[in-house]
Amino acid sequence: MSSLKWWETAVIYQIYPRSFQDSNNDGIGDLPGITSRLDYVAGLGVDAIWISPFFASPQKDFGYDVSDYCAINPEYGTLADFDTLIARTHELGMKLMIDIVPAHCSEQHRWFVESRRSRDNDKADWFHWVDPLPDGSAPTNWLSFFGGRAWSWEPRRQQYYLHNFLPSQPNLNHANPAVREAMMDVARFWFDRGVDGFRLDAVHTINGDSAPYRDNPPNPEFEVGPLPQDQQPFFRQLHDAAQLNQPSIQLFSEAIRAVADSYEDRFLMGEVDGDNDDAVKVSAGFTTPGRLHATYNFDLLEWAGLSVDEMKEAISAAIEVFNGSGRLSFAFSNHDVPRSATRQLAMLGLSPDKGDAMQLLLLKLETCLIGSACVYQGEELGFADVQDIPLALMQDPWGIEFAPTFPGRDTCRTPMVWRQSSPNGGFSKSNSTWLPISDQHLVRAALDQAERSGSICREFSDFLRWRKTQPAIMDANEMSAVSGGPGQIVFDRISDQQTLRCHFDFDTLTASFEEV
Ligand code: BGC
Hints:
The chain is an alpha/beta fold. Helices cover about 30% and strands about 15% of the residues.
């Protein structure tokens, strides 16, 4: 029996609810749809699922703009549907994680509706309200991740409010204890319903500190791109940002950890990014005792893909976090970046016929690393990124803002495909789906692959079954330094009973394992 907690070794399958399975023929995935596909997910041999937000929301950022944290968006179903989903997940032996968005809410949330009305209402200081500079301009030079300034003007208060993402996603003021307490009530609400853990969205963007708000210093590495400077994607302009990773965010981490600890065996995984190179330091700060259990690591999610040497560096940095008190979770794909099957193929200079072998190798690598691993729906099928979505069909506000220079995130969010022979690949019986179904995905349908020996999906699930029998991976949190020549990633996983040498060869696209 392993002495580790379930989340220390878990393979977590990420479900993007809008694109998983539609049960009521409106072209949009929903909770009963997810429940109907859980047998497939459990069949993969994963340990947990993480579902991206399905809470009440105007869907300006597809659920990451929450208007009621304790209600289900009607297009996704009801609380009763959620209860059925969680019961079935547990019956199948998996844990269930949901995605809470603590840093900001929707402008339609009643907290913001009230707050914006005047300077002296009950929620007046639940958001970051700041007076203009003497010339009327915004208080700092901060930019939004999604383009433009991070401050918008509210005429009724004659003040600016902060939003690190869309103007319709106002940042909550976590320096106010009432805000933190309201978020703790949300956590209790879902823990009481049996949820096993949270992926905490964009915690590094919680602005725990209030006035004085300081300008971000200039970034010496910043290169002006094709867009106007104040429209550059935000992350390119940050260096030592005053806007991110403020020390008092930890008041939030500590408060939510205390709530999690009052239940049994719950897990908190924070989505945390550093500005530039200090991701490791930042992750470590979030996971010291009494704070979050683990951070969701961005280092393998690099938009342009990673060379083998860069992967080695990312993995080595993660070992540093583990050697301190930190824990983390790796991911090669998610709903925010181009799919790994495409970006890594391009970065490694491989021809398309090598795609499946490369994708399987990435999945094996990811699930042998220390810590937990998050596998995004479709990754186990070798789905390519869908890069030909016309502007008229695009949905992601970030992509719409910057197309065609930057395609946004629809490319990795198109619906799952279950059966090649079914209309819409079995995703929906509607005439149209919220994002188009990709023809290239149809031949990779999940249930077809699950029945076909030799498919990536089958090879991956066989691999996960083998992984569970390896004490070095399942029972101990030790990993050697990374070695291997060019094109190779080699490390040992080590427990009292076993030392397992894991060898990933990006020239032959094979993985091999031996006990040493
Ligand atoms: C989520 C994104 C979302 C953003 C704002 C993230 O990091 O993963 O999908 O747009 O937070 O909530």
